[in-house]
Every structure is written in C-alpha cells, then in structure tokens.
What does this fold into?
Amino acid sequence: MNLARLDLNLVVALRALLEERNVTRAGQRVGLSQPAMSAALSRLRRHFDDDLLARVGGHYELTALGQVLLDRTSTAYDVLERLFSSQAEFDPAEESREFKLVASDYAVSVFGAELARVVHEEAPGIRLRFAQTPPTVVDDTASLLSAVDGLLMPHGVISGFPATDLYEDRWVFVVADDHPSIADRLTRQDLADLPWVTYQRTYDAPAVRQLGMLGVEPRVEVSVDSFQLLPLLVAGTRRIAMVQARLARLLAPITPVRIVEPPYEAVSLQEALWWHPVHTHDAAHIWLRETAARVGSRLPRPHGG
It folds into this structure.
C-alpha cells in the first residue's frame, strides 16, 4: 500500500461514519455536506472493497470489516491528532495546554499530587487530567497510549514502549491495629491462612508472581479497584492487604491499621511514565517527561526502604 496516495482526510470521515452510522450526521460532525460525505463513503468502500455500512431496514449497521475498523480508526485518529499537534518549541510559563495521564489512585496520591503542585507553580497555563487505568491496559497498551499523553505504571506489567523512571517504592502489608493474631510481624503461614483484600487489576503482578514462587496462594475475600480502599477494608477485620509503602504511610494516620513488613524480601517497585513513540520528539511532551522525572527524584524514600 502506498500511503502517499491516500487522503488522510478519509480517516476523519471514516471515524465519523463508523461511529455515527449515518451519512448525514457524520457529515454534520466533521463539517461536510451530505453529498461530500456520501462521496467520501464511496471512496472508502472502493478502497476497502467492502460496504462498511449496510442498510438494515431503515438504518445502517456496520459490516464485519466495519466493526473491525471501528477501534482501529479511533486509534489511528488519536495518533494522527497528537502527531500533528507536536511542537518544536515549548515555553511552559506561556503555553496553555492539557496533558492527560492515565494512572491508578495510588500513583495520583503519592506522585500526581506533587506533580500538579509543581506544574501549578511553574506553568500556570498547563492543566493535568488524570484518568483511571482501564482493565484492558495490558491487552491493548498501544491503543491506550495513542489516546493519552502518558501512563503511570510500574515496570514489570507492560513493555515495548518508551518510559522514564520516576521513583521507587516497596510492598508492605497492612493489618487492623487490633488484629487478634498478628503482633509485630507476619509469617508465611499467616499469608496462607488469613483472608486477603486485593487490588483486582494487574499492577502488582510482579509481587503476586513472587508470592506464587514462595508457594503462597492468597485467600481473597474482598477485591476492589482502588488501592486507597485497601486499608479501609482491612480495618476492624482479620484481613490483610499488600500495599505500596508510600501509600500505606500516607493513609496510616487516618485509618486504624498497622503497617507490617513482609516475611520475605519483597520485590521492589519502580514507577515509570510510559508514552507512545509519537510523543518522543514533541517539545511539550519532553518538558512533561523532564518535569515528571524531576518531581519523582525529589520524593523522599519510603520509610524502611
């Protein structure tokens, strides 16, 4: 396929047609007349040798290929949009721009809040928008990164994309401050016998793999998609939970729990900012990465680490 012969405006038309499934509404969405959008649909049908939109009764439905193209077109559109918004120069004190970062509530609590404070002081026109990491992050990382400016996630979960390291953390356990059977330390038998509260996604995958290698199979009683809720679901119960040390120290003063060291040498956690290669040479994104790395390097080390 010769990309030089393709009209990239067709990407815009294709996305609108597949999402709206109506020629008139698609034209209104992108500012084209109904005849112009019909002509674009005809060109797309010739290119793909497929109807893309098939009339069923009084409406259109996507063909099998149209359904496949729906997600791919959205990803391609996001990449093109971010590619052509790249800047050769960037003055943070003068620019007005929003950066969208995907992150867990843990990363926003221990790092994002400090990043937002620094950005507020140094670049008053810059806005940060944090979005919760979706469950599909591992399955379709490329699509996710194409639509955002960055992803905050530890090493060991995804790979194959550029990243800059931010800070280190480590895993600890939290138990109720009045836990009936745990004093100052846990045993491996405790890990096997006591009920667990777990984070239901995969960000602690290296730590979970380590538990498996130690022969520990957590008996999960509660799972939740928020790291900050783990101590609350431990308080007043016999449950235990594995939490990042920085977050545990942040929440301990306001939650009736105790922090207990693991009964083994736990794998460390290296948080990083991951991005799509389309951003690599963008001056604004370079500033964002450098600022994030500087903020991360200034965070105090977690206690005991």
Remarks:
- The first strand starts at residue 53 and ends at 56.
- The CA atoms of residues 243 and 288 lie 28 Å apart.
